[in-house]
Amino acid sequence: MVLVVLALDAVDVRHAEDFGCENLLLDEHTKMQSVAHRLEHPHTGEAWPSIATGLHPTEHGMTGHGEWDSQFLTALSRIAHTLNVSGNIRSRIGDAIKQNTGQDWSLQIVDEPTFLDGEYRAVHNWPGVYRNEALHYIWGLFEEVKEDRMSEETLIRETYTEAASKFGWVHEAITHDIQIAATHIHVIDVLGHIYSDDRAAYRQVYEDVDERVGEVREALGEDDELLILSDHGMETTWLDDDDPGTHSWRAIASTTVGSPPEHALDVKEWVEDHVQEIDPERTRADIPEDQLRELGYID
Ligand SMILES: [Zn+2]
């Protein structure tokens, strides 16, 4: 049995419900309470390490302060919010960088234990836990667009193809004898910032991702299960939101097994309760024995 954990950044439970994304909602779903320390809304670099460790940002220490103090960043964030009103796409992308990356260009790796630790728990990028480079790459593209060195079209393409590489990884990972296959996918966050005032374009992104998740569902073995998580949602112009283009508190948890975790800090325990132990001795012993049998050395 493999537990597939899809960390789908910025999937907003309200939007997933409104758009009828049945693969994102799975058998059972809930609005998951997320965490925030540096800003008034949840932040990618803080929340994912919290989800993996079960610790609040003040406990795992990944708050993204960097050189700046939190008051300065909060003030900067408030100024950025007012720029949203202009509706200019460049300023919105600039806002997203200020609010979501800030000093996080060198997002670190937590020291505390996570549910992703262990030889039979396969991970393909998890912010603040395992190989931050994919997130840094996308954040870097944001900067390129903001500085007018790259087109928005290219950012969108790179975001989709990055996401595709993660979904493809899941399809391969579940064919192996592992407990967990977990990956972080950033496409809804990036395009959510860009399309927070364009419901049709935003909905299309949800439908695209919903389709990819549907393909993973179809590929699951009989005993395999799926857990979908987000760290926050996205405030948009067509809902009664205060700051369209910023992160909402409407994170999601959905699953194919039992009831999903209600709180970001409960995820680690939830995973440990649902994962199936693999006996490494047995796994290792089976492989040569099968090969020996095939070769006719043993009956
Ligand atoms: Zn995020």
Automatic annotation (TrEMBL):
Entry protein name: Type I phosphodiesterase / nucleotide pyrophosphatase
Taxonomic lineage from the root: Archaea, Methanobacteriati, Methanobacteriota, Stenosarchaea group, Halobacteria
Superkingdom classification of source: Archaea
